[in-house]
Amino acid sequence: MSAVRDLRVLLRLPDFRRLLTVRLLSQAADGVFQVALAAHVVFSPEKQTSPGAIASAMAVLLLPYSLVGPFAGVLLDRWRRRQIILCGNLLRAFLAACTALLILGSLPDWLFYASALAVTAVNRFVLAGLSASLPRVVEDERLVVANSLSPTAGTLAATAGGGLAFVVRLLISESDAAVMLLGAALYLSSALAAVTLGRDLLGPDPGLVQPRLKAALASTAQGLAAGVRHLAERRDAGIALIAMTLTRFCYGALTVMVLMLCRYAWSLGEEDGLGLLGIALVVSGAGFFVAALVTPSAVGRLGSFGWMVACSASAAVLEPALGLPFSPVPMLIAAFVLGLITQGAKIATDTVVQTSVDDAYRGRIFSLYDVLFNVAFVGAAGVAALILPPDGRSAPLVVGVAVLYAGIAAGLFRWRKHRPLTEKG
Question: How far apart are CA 113 and CA 118, in angstroms?
Answer without folding.
Answer: 9
